[in-house]
Each structure stands twice: as structure tokens, then as C-alpha cells.
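Q: What structure does this chain adopt?
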Amino acid sequence: MGTTRAWIQGRGRRVPAASALAVAAVLGTAACEPTGGLNSASIAVTTDRVGTGALENKGVDVRWLSCSAGVDGARAWGASPAASVPRSANVDCTGRTGGGEAITLSGKVTQELGGRCVRGDLTARTGGRSVFRAEVLGNCDAPPPTSVITPITPAAGGNGFRPTVTVTVTVTETPLGK
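A:
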């Protein structure tokens, strides 16, 4: 695996579904990442979230931001885990401001701390100008999140997960007078 993409909408437009998908991406990709190394999914999600906050703190009206991360030093088949623990990840984020200007946030991440912050060398640009260059995004001293996702316990066997229901509504509009 190695490369993961995360997408979260900006100020006031974040939706719970985006968070649920991000958590699912982190949990699904975690099994493919080396233990003790960097996790591309958690880096992408955390950089997206803390990067959006940092941009908004600098006065950028973030409409949306989408980040992908790829860990360096992917493990070769049969290599020992200690020899292949990734030391950094390349992060590339793109997005749009409320005014339609392009946003980029990119660089290397050397550490991600439980969704609270990322450390490395990251640069953000929008509208052809540099917004910031940072070694740390987020609050690394914040307490770790306490929320935990637990699967549904089956009453009588089964795997404990239920299918979701999707409802699609089609609306047809006809101009008046025809």
C-alpha cells in the first residue's frame, strides 16, 4: 500500500461522513504499514485536518482540502521489518479557497502524533503566494483523543457489523408552461 488520500471540507462545512471515512481509511490501511513506522493514512488525515486549521488561522477561507501521503522506504518482500521502517512520508495536499483560488500544502512528514500534529517540513501556498512554512502543524501537546470506535456486538453469532442503508432520491423538475 503506502499511499493514502484523505479529504475533509473546510470551515463550517465538515461532515461527519468525512470523519468516518477518514477513520475507516486509517484502520484499513494500518494493517499494510510496517509496525513502528509512519502510517500513510494517519499522516494524510492528520495533515488534512491540522493543515486546514493552520490555513484558516492565517486567514485563508478553505472550501476543501485533499491530502495524500506516501511513506518512504516501503518494505521489500522478505526484508526484515527493522530494516524497512519508514523514516519520512511525502505529503501532497490540494484544495480550493472560498474564492476559488488553488491551495497547495506539501512537504515531508517525519512524525505524526495520534491525529494531534505532524512534524516535518511543510509549505502552504494559495493564489500564487506563500502562506506559511512550518516544522510542526497542530498541537503535539494536546491530550490524545479519547473516542474509540467499537464494532456492534452480535446477539447471536456473526461478525458484529451490519450493512448500511443508502437512500437515493431522484427529483425531476419541469419548467412551468410546458
